[in-house]
Structure formats: C-alpha cells, structure tokens
Fold this sequence. Notes:
Elements: H1 3-21, H2 30-40, E1 46-50, H3 53-67, E2 72-74, H4 77-80, E3 93-97, H5 107-115, E4 119-124, H6 130-134, E5 137-140, H7 156-172
Parallel strand pairs: 1-2, 1-3, 3-4, 4-5
Helix pairs in contact: 1-7, 3-7
Amino acid sequence: MSKKDYINLAKKTANIQITELKKIKKTFNNSFVKAIDLILNCKGKVVFAGIGKSGLVARKISATFSSVGIPSFFCDPAQALHGDMGQIEKRDILIIFSYSGNTSELTNMLKYANRFRIKIIGVASKPNSLLLKASDIKILLPKVKEADVTGMVPTSSTSITMLLGDCLATTVM
C-alpha cells in the first residue's frame, strides 16, 4: 500500500464520519429539551456512566461538564456493583450512554436508580433497549455507519455520542 493510499483511506474515514455526524440534528427534539431542563434544575451532581467505548465517551463528557462548572463525575457500572453506587444520591441525575442500550452491566445501576427514584437520562440507538425502557428521559441516537473498512469498529457511533454530550454541555452553559 502506498502513502497515497493511506491518505485516501483517512479521507474516506473522515468523510463517512462527517456525513454521519450530520444526523445529530435528529436528537434536537423534546427529549433533548427535557434533558436540558433536568440538568439545569439538578440539585445534586450529574453522574455519567457507560461501558466500554461508551464509558470512555461518558468519562470525557463528565470532564467537559466539570470544565463548564457543572458538578459531575463518572461512575463505572461494573465498579458500581462493588460499592461505587453509594456515591449516587437522590438529588443527582444519571446520564447513561450505551449505543446498543442493552449492555448487561447496566442492569444493576438502572435498578438502583429506579429504586431510589434517581432520574435517568438514557442515550442509546435502539428505542426498545433495556436502557431506554428504564430511563425517565430517552434520547434516541440515530443509527450511523461506522467508518472503518469492516463497518464494525466504534468510530462514527462514538463520535456522534461525543457530539451529543458536547451539545448538552454547551446548551446548559
């Protein structure tokens, strides 16, 4: 493969993601408005969660919220099973990211939040997912084409999730 091929592959990947990111506008609806209102009226902290790549995105969005003066932290759902859920209080809200919305590690965190009436903003791409069914506010991400040659590596899906988190943070500002 030549160096020119490297550049062409990179441009192809960038073009796919740029095209897919334009779908973010579908999320700017009544659910988005409700999420903003809930965040603005939160009397506690904004707690972010996710597993795998969605967890990395959630951690970054939490850092962005902290940067703009909104008290927040990331809680790993797998670690939460071993006592970390005690950090989440009734006055907090929980924003959970999972592209599929059916990640088994989220189950106990969702049950905990529902039991203590902690408000949940769920962000997923499947409307009938476990996450969105358990959420007070459901933000449905559009399905996107991944930008790698196999179409399976989280590329566009993580980018659009990150973009949504940045839009939440900048709107709350």
